[in-house]
Amino acid sequence: MQVKCPTCQRSIEWEHAPYRPFCSERCRLIDLGGWLSERNAIAGETATLESEPTAERPRES
Question: Would you tell me how many other CB atoms lie within 10 Å of the CB of residue 12?
Answer without folding.
Answer: 20
